[in-house]
Structures are given as C-alpha cells and as structure tokens.
Amino acid sequence: MTLKKLADHCHVSVSTVSKAFHNAPDISEETRETIFRAAKELGCYGKYRKEKYNKKSIAVICPETGSDFYTGYIERLRALIEQDNGIVLISADGFDKERQRELLDYYADHLHVDGILIFGIHAPLKTGYDTPIVSLHGTGSDPTDAVYMDMRSPINEAVAHLVKLGHTHVAFLGETLTATKGDMFAEAMAGHQLQPTAQISSEQRFELAGEDGVQRLLEQAPHTTAIICTYDYIALGAIKALNTAGLRVPEDMSVIGIDNIRVTPYIGTSLTSIDTHPDEICAIAWDLLKKKMENHFFRLKQRIQISGSLVVRETTAPPRNENAG
Amino acid sequence: MTLKKLADHCHVSVSTVSKAFHNAPDISEETRETIFRAAKELGCYGKYRKEKYNKKSIAVICPETGSDFYTGYIERLRALIEQDNGIVLISADGFDKERQRELLDYYADHLHVDGILIFGIHAPLKTGYDTPIVSLHGTGSDPTDAVYMDMRSPINEAVAHLVKLGHTHVAFLGETLTATKGDMFAEAMAGHQLQPTAQISSEQRFELAGEDGVQRLLEQAPHTTAIICTYDYIALGAIKALNTAGLRVPEDMSVIGIDNIRVTPYIGTSLTSIDTHPDEICAIAWDLLKKKMENHFFRLKQRIQISGSLVVRETTAPPRNENAG
DNA sequence: CTGAAAGCGCTTACAG
DNA sequence: CTGAAAGCGCTTACAG
Fold this sequence. Notes:
2 copies of one chain form a homodimer. By secondary structure, the first copy, chain A, is an alpha/beta fold. Chain A has 3 domains: 3-48, 434 Repressor (Amino-terminal Domain), CATH 1.10.260; 56-149 and 278-307, 3-Layer(aba) Sandwich (Rossmann fold), CATH 3.40.50; 152-276, 3-Layer(aba) Sandwich (Rossmann fold), CATH 3.40.50.2300. Helix content of chain A is 42%, strand content 18%. Chain A has helices at 3-10, 14-21, 29-41, 45-48, 68-83, 97-110, 152-165, 179-191, 206-220, 232-244, 278-294; strands spanning 56-62, 86-92, 115-118, 133-136, 145-150, 170-175, 198-202, 226-229, 254-256, 273-275, 303-307, 309-311. Chain A has a 6-stranded parallel sheet, with helices on both faces. A 4-stranded parallel sheet of chain A has the order 7-6-8-9, sandwiched between helices. In chain A, helix 10 links the parallel strand 8 (226-229) and strand 9. Chains A and B meet through helix 4, helix 5, strand 2, helix 6 and helix 10 of A and helix 4, helix 5, strand 2, helix 6 and helix 10 of B. Chain A binds a DNA duplex through residues 2-4, 12-16, 18-19, 22, 24, 26-28, 31.
C-alpha cells in the first residue's frame, strides 16, 4: 500500500493524503476523516500515522524477569528513566548468548533505541553499534562501559562472619548458572584455612534447587553447620528442606543468602543475606548511560566497581556444641 | 545525514553506498568497509543498516515488574511467544492511565509491533489501532478481546472455607489499588449472612501494607479470627506483624492470600491462597492474539472468563474456642 | 566493481 | 480547502 493507492481509493490527491497524516491545518476535518477511515480499512493507518515521540527510548535487557533480583533492579531503573522522561522497553534473553546478541541487534539496529542497559554481556560484542550501551552486574570484563558488583569481598565477609561465630564446617549451595560465586566461596574458605564440606550445584533453579541441594548435602556432609546459598530463593528452599528434615535454622544450621531481595525479612526467620546496593548501582548506571547519550564521542570506556555488603539477620548463629569445630 | 552526503564523504556514488548497505553482492569488500567505517564515524550506520527481522515482535504492557504476580505471567508469555519465534518487548505503566495510553500508542503507532498483550485496559481506547490487542486480567469490560479472571467465585470459596472451619469474625486487608476485591469480599460475607469485622485499605504496598494493616486491625477489631489479604505479599507482611504481636498463624489467626505466587509454599508456614491459573490464561491469551495477528479481519471481539480456585495450605485452621462463634 | 540515469514514494511551497 | 508540480532521498536495471 502506498500513499498514491490510498489517494486513488479516496478520490483525492497524494498531496492531500500526505498532509492529512501530517496534521496540516488546511485539510478539512471531513476529508481527513474519510482518509483515516479508508486507511484503517486497508490496514495502513499505523504505517503513515507516525506520532512524533520526543521521548528517549531506553532498552533494558535482562536474563529473566522471574526473579526479584532482576525485577528489583528493573523497577529502580524504570523509576529513574521515567523521571527523566524516557520510555523503557524490557526484554529477557533467558541466559542465552545468541538471544542476547539478537536482542542487542534488534534494539540497536532495528528499533534504534536511544540507549541500552544490559545485565552483563556474555558474547563478544559486534562492533559498530552507534547506540550507547552500559552493562550492569556483568563480570567486570564486559566490552562496554560497565557498573559491576564485586562479590568476592562480601562472600569473604560472609565466611568471616560464620568463622567468627565458631563455624568450621561450611557448605555452598549453588546451581548450574552460578559457578563463579562457588569459586569465590572456595577461595574465601581457603583464605581462612578451611575446606568446604561440600559445594553443591543443583540442576534445578530457585527454591527447588535449595530443596534438592539440602537433600544432597545431608547425605554427603551431615556434619555441616552452615550453608551459604548462591541466591536468596535457594536459601528459602534450603530452609524449607532443613525444617522438613527436622533441623532448625539457625539453632541446628546457619543459612546465608545472596541478593537481599525484598521478601528476605518476611520469611519466618528473617534471612541473613548479601546486599548488592541496587539503588546505587542503578543510579550510577543510568547516569553513565545519560552521559553517553548526550555525547556520542564520549568514547572513554568506564568500569565502575561496587562492593556488596553482608546484612546479618536471624538465620545465622553459633553452631551447636556437639558439632562445633 | 543522507546517503548523498555519506557518498560524497567517501568519494563514491549514492548508488554504491545504497548497495553496500543492502548487501548487494557486486560491491567490493574494501569499498563496503570504507563506507561502513565512515557511517559509524558520522553516526548513521544504524540508520541505514537495517537488518531484516522476520520475527514477530510482541509488546507486553503490565502495571509493574516488581511483583511475582505479573512476572509469573510475563515469564510464561515469554516462553510461549519465543517458542513461536517471536521477540518480546515488555513495558510497565505503573498503574497510570496516561502512561498506559502512551505505551499503547508508542508500540502500536510508532514501533509498529505485530501484537500487544496488556494487563487490563484502564482508559477508553483510542480507535484505529491496526495492531491486534488482547487484554488479560482486566475487569472483563475491556474494549478489546480479553481473557479475564473471575475473582468473585474464589473469594466466595475462601469465605466458605473459613466459615466451614468455624470462623465468623473475618477481616479483609487491602491497599489503595485493590478496592474491587474488597467489594467482592463484602458481598461474599453478606452471602453467608456475616459482617466483616474490618475492611482495611492501607496506603502502603506489598509487605509493608500487610504490617500496617495488621497493626490497624488489632486496634480496630481485636476479636477477628481470620484475615483474607488482597494479595500474597500483603499476607507475608501480615503474618510477620501477627508474629511480632505474639499471635501465631494459624492457631490464633487464619490468613488467606490471593495470587498463589511461587514463594507461598516457602514462607515458614505455607500460605493458603487463591490460584489464578497463569499457565492456562497465558496459553489462551497468546492463542487468541496469534489468531488476530493471522487475520486482521478477525474482528469478532471475544471475552474469555476463567475462575480462580482456592489452594488450602497451612495458614488456615479452626478458630480458638474462646474466640469462636 | 562502479556510476549515470530512470523512476518510485513522499513532502511541500505555491497556485487557484 | 485541494491539487499540480518541483524536488528530495532512496533503489535498481543497465552501461561500461
């Protein structure tokens, strides 16, 4: 469908049709109506009636929207971006490199958004995006500007907290997607001259991974007195499974989560966890992206590191005497 | 920047530049490279290098991404849409009518997505979108095709469940955005010849609304033996506040949530809640949207109603004798 | 492998 | 209030 064809269909000139769609003041209301009605019938109304948007559109690419960890960040970013009169488009790549690249291409080269915020870049980046991209919560080796979280020091802090309470038999509960944090845990333990009693990687996710992990842990290393879980949902599942097995938290087992999601204070015994400072990270990342958007020659690549911090609540306590190291 | 200017800048013809961007086979690799490099420098690479996307793009417009209720639906929709080779763009309107309309315009008339899924339409709909729109979880009076949830019957089921356990002093805990469910609760109570002991609407949201609501409830109606909360996060906050006040759930107070979000079985005493059948709703809504996308003359407006159902877990029990009856 | 030229789709200053 | 005509930006069949 072209303007010409639509014009013929309405028995007016292309000029008139063109002007009608551009809100020219000299077109009669009647003619405009006739043209719009015909366009809608022929299914080309949207094609020509392009509203002008002065708002900046910002894409946020995350791995998934099914976890409070990411949605906590997304809601904060959205508040900041909308405050600055931007429109936010969110997509999830499901931890898939190919899909992440596809989404980057789609937003940068097809939709031409004004800026992209992305939770870590997993694949080598295609060159030539003229859309500014800021990564947050990546590994720290992203090929773009990045605001990332140092997890090493808070995981070390968590281990130190347990050691101070008297624990020496500490295990780690993770899942397939969180191997890096497991390594950091092992390093932190080594730094305290300790061996993990177990380092379990479940094939499940979320709460189910915690239940699965605890079942395996109680078989493999029943002398364990404390568990660090790779994220809070896993800690929830772990606590449930511990209770089912007749073990109380924190009397029989200390549990620490990571991410400090919104519900952690509301789960019966409130969870000791590691906070990732989402307010600060979001503010810094959006600030950086804005700077890039204002000046495309702002080519200097910045890496901004923030450290997480341990929040001690009720799920950690000294080990029972009979088990203490 | 125009192709002409870019061509002059590279000392080639417009034809050559045009062909370079369209992957014409007769352009030398060298020339193509020169042109692309210049385009990137001049910031117009993305403008001309429009990859062709054969994928359908689907917008999902929700009120917020900060609650498991919506993200549970979104993850399911995303799985279905990606299975059918679609790209998903998510935006949140923050319960704001103006912003919802803006997002509809943006996706339909500006980005020209292939279809829109939206969680209830709050404002009168502008006519003339030639983009198919399906509403889910609206009020049932949306101006588009809609798949919506009947909450009346499961709320009635929840009240009946409490009455059968022996409760007669039942309160409702809501917040500013959930007035409709409060009305349905009052009707269900009337159907059982009962008066609510209280119907509290907190100005807070999520867990904080539950804590706030319980504090007010214990002052206003201390003889209450059961609470229905307008969504699960409020129930979490309510249980926390009840425990703080020295009341046990369900021995001293029964609590029912709504939505049956993923964490409800993992919160210490697992929560009795109302399930909204997200799998079924998402499958039906996506199916309907696909049909509309395949045939734009599929103008028959459909309203599909699904009923929620009560899932009884551990937070409901008979009232203590001294309070019963 | 490159470009001149024809031509399409759209916009707009101008005529009536 | 409408349209003929000039002209811009882009694509493409064809010539070299």
